[in-house]
DNA sequence: TTAATAATGCAACAATGTTGCAATAATAAA
DNA sequence: TTTATTATTGCAACATTGTTGCATTATTAA
């Protein structure tokens, strides 16, 4: 992954944190929480800067925010391969979050006059690892 | 609504806050946040007690928690009429949350060895009121 | 009515995220 | 390459949402 090109593609300048965050999310197979990201960063990275970078990446549609529960929010690189909206699976045992790209979201029957912008589905359960 | 019977049905004793919370949620047509509930309660109700009551109602399956976003969680009385799981609609303009009981949740294609416990869908959009 | 038990209020704390502002780093121009 | 401009970062302080321990008060059952 060429993080310099990736960043400039979104009109962002190359800084240490941005490069590192891209790398961390690129390597990770599952969605990561800000705390999980923080633990993978060097110790001297400010919490505020990380939050600001995450917010920036969200705005630029580089990452996707997945709200698991009131207290757990995770982030995933938006992958152009499986770009369309899909549900996410949350393992209640190990807390990992994975994409379910093969499951289409339901087409919702909205009341008259309502309009839809987006929808998100979280599937709670246990993964193969935790079932064994 | 007979709150005394309703509470004893779930093995709960009748206290002022529990009665009032049931009443507030019963009257409300949409899901309410803890802050919205707080503003409908008397001023002298402790925030901690409300949180504890909400948690208790959740555990007893009297109410259903709907996580809209990292910072917004709403609660709704579980209505036995439309008891099965259904998506919820969140109006991004007025912030109201409504049930979409006529839309079934998708049946997810899970990888081998995975098992499902629950799923939740949040539909983001604008309601009829806000579209006019 | 009273004793046992359960619920509440208060203070303090914890986690997660935000804001203002000064210091620093990145970029573009000379 | 050096400098000036602009963008980014770090720090301190704050905001919101929720939790814990413990003493006080209310509820329930005898």
Please explain how this structure is put together.
With 132 residues, chain A is α+β, with helices and mostly antiparallel strands. The first copy, chain A, has one domain (3-131): Winged helix-like DNA-binding domain superfamily/Winged helix DNA-binding domain (Arc Repressor Mutant, subunit A), CATH 1.10.10.10. The first copy, chain A, contains five helices and six strands; from the N terminus they run ααβααβββββα. The first copy, chain A, has helices spanning 3-9, 16-27, 34-40, 47-59, 128-131; strands at 32-33, 63-69, 72-77, 88-91, 97-99, 115-126. Chain A has a three-stranded antiparallel beta sheet with strand order 1-3-2. In chain A, strands 5-4-6 form a three-stranded mixed beta sheet. In chain A, β4 and β5 form a beta hairpin. The longest helix of chain A has 13 residues, at 47-59. The mean pLDDT of chain A is 90. The interface between A and B is large, with 38 and 39 residues. β6 (115-126) of chain A pairs antiparallel with β6 (115-126) of chain B, so a sheet runs across the interface.
